[in-house]
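Hi there,

I know you've been waiting on this one. I reran it after we fixed the sequence typo, so this is the corrected version. Both the input and the resulting structure follow.
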Amino acid sequence: MTATNHVITGSVFLATTVTHLPLWLSLPIAFLLHFVLDALPHFGQPDDDAAALRRLKWMLPLDASLAAAILIAILILQPAHWVAILAGGILCASPDLWSATRFFRFLRTGNTARNPDWFAQFHHRIQWGERLWGIWVELAWALGFGYLLLVRL
């Protein structure tokens, strides 16, 4: 899933549960939601790593800008429990930062090798459903959860 969808989902989760669950429980769940989302079919190209990494050159700035805009909107609007809502969005998106080294290595050297550590391997394996048509799943998710976030702010 895109960082935007991770941020929206984590923020909606915290906005919905912050008064019902203690933060010591809801914040780790927001982090784990990242992997639930990545296990769903979503946008990507599993067969050609170089093409997928090349696509990130234009997609990553757009996605990061949208995700940041959502976090900034929460910061500016400051709804009830806004710090927890921000934390939920950041935590849900944060596991993707682990693979940033792979992307920057690709930009520098053209090397498409995956990071060899267990976390990166696990993260890659759960994304079985990366497909080009997954853009429609991403769009529907963003619209649905974006609306849920909007009504909670």
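Quick highlight: The chain has a mean pLDDT of 86.

Best,
R. S.
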